[in-house]
Each structure stands twice: as C-alpha cells, then as structure tokens.
Design goal:
This is Transcriptional regulator. 41% of the residues lie in helices and 21% in strands. By secondary structure, it is α+β, with helices and mostly antiparallel strands. The chain has a six-stranded antiparallel beta sheet. Strands 1-2 form a two-stranded antiparallel ribbon. Helix 2 packs across helix 3 and helix 5 runs antiparallel to helix 7.
C-alpha cells in the first residue's frame, strides 16, 4: 500500500477476487483468514459490497459474487473490442479471412469482435455475438488448451468443419492478461489452413494482449 491508495478499497477488491475464484462461496471466517484481518472488518466490507449488489450471502452465510458485477461486466466488452480492432483488421487484410476476438462467457465462447477482409470475393460470415461450446471450434479449443496448460509450440490450434461445414479455423490464446480468457483467430472456407496463418494468428493474439495490458 502507498499513500495514494485506499486500504479499505483494496480489501474490498480482494474480497471480490477471492469470491470470484470459488464456486461455493466463502464464510466470514474463511475470508478473515485469507485477508489476514479480523471478522469485524470482513462484515463491514461484505455489508458495503452487498449494498451495491456486488456480493450476496446465502442462507448458510456464505458470501458469493452478486449479480451487480454483471452490470460492470457489460461495459468490459466494448473496451476490449476497441483495443483489439487494429490487430484484427491487420490480420483479416493480411490473411484474407474473417478475423475474430473470442472471450469466455460461462461455458461458452463468445465472439466479441469480428473483422471481415475487404478485398476477397467471398469469406465466412461470422458475427459478433456468435456463441459456441468451448470444446468446439479453434477459438474455444485454444482457450481450453491455454487453461489446461496443454498448448504447445507453435502456440495455435487448428480445426476443420467443427462449427460450419467446409470451414477451417486457426486460433491462438491471449496470454498474460489477468482476468480475461480469450483467443484471436481466423475462419476461412478451406479444407486446410495455410502454413503461414498459424504463426500470423499467434502474432495477432500477442498484439491484442499487449493492447489490453
């Protein structure tokens, strides 16, 4: 902590992070132990966060993340989309395929930004807001590989025909960004992804990650 920071706010944010990392919630005692503060401080933090719907407590007294965080989360996608667009435009024009940024939304992959190339005669129609299971399609598989630590060199995932017949995809995960799971990829009408596409997608994912830091 420094003179310019708020200890109370810092503790409140740490409470939210701890609750976000658990599926079953935490008791006041558990939070007290994890934060290294007494129970009275935790009670006050929870009461304040509850007033803003950022935390809720169940009948058993366990604290969980509240629905209020969803309202805050809705404002994240536009910011992420704006930061990613330059890299996506460059990728789409360079490869001649539809480029996309995909983020995790629950158990699904959600395309939050899509850029189509301007010079091709045809390309795959892929729209922002498109959802699919994380275990189908290059975008979701790249995210899962990064989550499970199973992504190996050259650092990208290839698929064919998993989301649309005749379409192939390549995607690389966003790496080194706290609180965001996502990938950058391209989708094209082809039986196989050309060799140069995978490394180019990895570069684009790195550019997007740098823009979000």
């Amino acid at each position: 902590m420094t003179a310019e920071t708020s200890q109370t706010l810092d503790r409140g944010l740490r409470v939210l992070k701890l609750l976000a990392d658990t599926d079953h919630g935490l008791t006041v005692t558990e939070l007290s132990n994890k934060l290294g503060v007494n129970r009275t401080v935790v009670y006050r933090l929870l009461a304040t966060l509850e007033q803003h719907a950022l935390v809720r407590r169940d009948l058993g007294g366990r604290a969980r993340v509240g629905l209020g965080v969803l309202r805050l989360g809705r404002q994240v996608h536009p910011l992420v989309r704006e930061a990613a667009l330059p890299a996506l435009r460059s990728l789409a024009e360079d490869i001649g395929a539809t480029a996309h940024l995909t983020l995790v939304d629950g158990a699904e992959a959600l395309a939050v930004a899509v850029v189509e190339p301007t010079w091709t005669d045809y390309h795959v129609a892929y729209r922002a807001g498109f959802r699919h299971p994380l275990d189908r399609g290059a975008a979701g598989r790249a995210i899962l590989a990064a989550r499970q630590g199973s992504l190996i060199e050259p650092g990208f995932t290839l698929t064919h025909g998993e989301l649309e017949a005749g379409a192939s995809g390549a995607a690389a995960p966003l790496v080194g960004i706290t609180g965001i799971e996502g990938s950058v990829g391209v989708v094209m009408l082809a039986d196989a992804v050309p060799e140069r596409v995978g490394p180019r997608v990895v570069d684009a994912a790195r550019e997007v990650a740098d823009a979000l830091r």
